[in-house]
Amino acid sequence: MAQPPIRADLGRPETPEERAERKAQNSRNYRESKTPNNLVIALVASLAVVLFLVLVVVRPTPAPADPIDYVAVAAEAQPGVSTTLITPALPPEWRANDAKLTAARGDSFLWYIGFVTPKNQFLALEQGIDAEAGWREDFLGRASPTGQVTIEGIDWDVYDQRETDDPGNFAYSLATSVAGTEYLVHGTASDNEFALFASALSAEITTPEG
User: Which residues contact 177 (CB under 8 A, 6 or more apart)?
Assistant: First the structure.
């Protein structure tokens, strides 16, 4: 009959009780070691699922907001002022995202239309009605004209601030005053888009009111 092996740490064969206790302790050690391992594995698996959903699952692109009918807004606001509110006729690729008439300093009013251009740039019209002195400075600060351009018979002062630090929505501006009304066109659009927009304004600016 084979003799039981001698345990080196005991210098003799282990008793049945010692063998049972050793196996029980090994089982406890195994279960305790598995608990943190399982937690780590579960956490990694959860993160992998989240990453997959973020990177792979197709998310629908929100539809752009409907354009503002600035002509209708102007018609509704017109009874509040005696000066004609400018509503430039533009190609359908131009989308208005805001239009409003607000009271400004003193007895003046401000008619504003904001546009997204066909090249996905910003361009806005500010029409100052009965504007007080310093009206341009309210928008342009201490900027000085960098030139002048004539578009469809209207002389515009040019304010090109594209090379300055953080010009915001006044990277490029055109300003003029006609019959006591101030007009300021500004934004991030290209020269061609500014020229097209100013041309669309010119007919309404030069048309006598009445």
Answer: 183
Q: How far apart are CA 210 and CA 208, in angstroms?
A: 6
In whole angstroms, give the CA distance from residue 112 to residue 194: 16
Which pTM does this prediction carry?
0.69
* C-alpha to C-alpha distance for 146 and 6, rounded to whole angstroms: 100
Architecture, CATH, for domain 70-206: 3-Layer(aba) Sandwich (3.40)
Provide the 8-state DSSP code for 160: E
Note the pLDDT tens digit of each residue in 156-203: 999 999 999 888 999 999 999 998 899 999 999 999 999 999 999 988
- Render 83-98 in DSSP notation, one character per residue: SPPP-----TT-EEEE
Token duo for residue 183: 């007009």
